[in-house]
Design brief:
Helix content is 40%, strand content 21%. It contains 14 helices and 13 strands. By secondary structure, the chain is an alpha+beta fold. The protein has 3 domains: 171 residues, Alpha-Beta Plaits (2-Layer Sandwich), CATH 3.30.70.270; 64 residues, MutS, DNA mismatch repair protein, domain I; 128 residues, DNA polymerase, Y-family, little finger domain (Dna Ligase, domain 1, 2-Layer Sandwich).
Amino acid sequence: MSSPSAPVLPHASRQIVHLDLDTFFVSVERLQDSRLEGRPVLVGGASERGVVASCSYEARRCGVHAGMAMAIARRLCPEAVVLRGDHALYQKYSQMVTEIVEARAPLYEQASVDEFYLDMTGMDRFFGTLRWTRELRREIIRETGLPLSSGLSVNKTVSKIATGEAKPAGELTVPPERVHPFLDPLPVHRIPMVGGKSYRLLRSMGVERIATLRAIPPAMLQQLFGKNGLLLWKKANGIDDSPVVNERLRKSIGTERTFDRDTDDAAFLLTALVKMTEQSAYELRRRGRIASRVTVKIRYSDFETHTLQQQIPLTAFDHTLIATAKVLFRRLYTRRVRVRLLGVRLGGLVPGTQQLGLFGDDTRLARLYQAMDRIRERYGTKTIGRMIE
């Protein structure tokens, strides 16, 4: 094992994004009642034995925090509005965010109802990870109205700490060469695994900053904290090899686009749909999958949402998928109301490649798509595409 006095650099090739919905329960409640804006708000059990599940930043300035007994919180902040909470409503908004993340991210892990990790490793070949993260963050905020903070760094630990430092409603990027300078001056309780008991023990040793903690020999930390000692030392050094794990197998590939301005321009919408389907088909082939279902989704300016899907023979060819998406769009777009969001999803995925027919132009088409995909991989996804009719 490397000496802790030597520079221990984290694995530099990973690109991990952490997303955290700020004061999630409170933020959802404020969407329902704008009168709560700017006021201290507590969400949780209102009885004497109740605890605070979420609290606004106004309440935090009074010393309140999540997990505190509600009775104590009310004494610290008597002017706070206390809400019991609506978990079905919170789950609805969490699902909205999950759908946006799932439509965009190649690999994600939902750590909690309001927290996500995304593994963007290797995606900077196609577009800048930082730019991608900013676009995703803006889309989630625009689509849900919820405040969101994000962190981007080399692993889950550093990206989560970065998100905490970016709050409220901010973003922070910590590149590989900045991991130690970023972590060192922070208090040790910023490390996710350091709870109250561990923090008190470290403070009794005179360890208040991460820089001090990472200089302690790992063997000493193992004596103090058992098997967690080495893990704590690694995190203080910005080392975390834990993967981003999606427990659900990905059953579909697709994308959605929330427009900057609602539109009823059918030609514009059709062009956007073709581009999204083409992008999803490329992702399908890149992952070695073929699809048997196409779904198109429209959300109007009044938030009324409609979807329509169609089963098709297994394929990964753009022209088949785009033709089906166009048919679904024309059947679906019946209201003369401006459109807020448009999406396409390819489902019924199975591993495999396009089966070529015995006759026709399938072989030439397969070679064409392979050539186009190689260009995309080398120069970016937007460098080549079809002419829109």
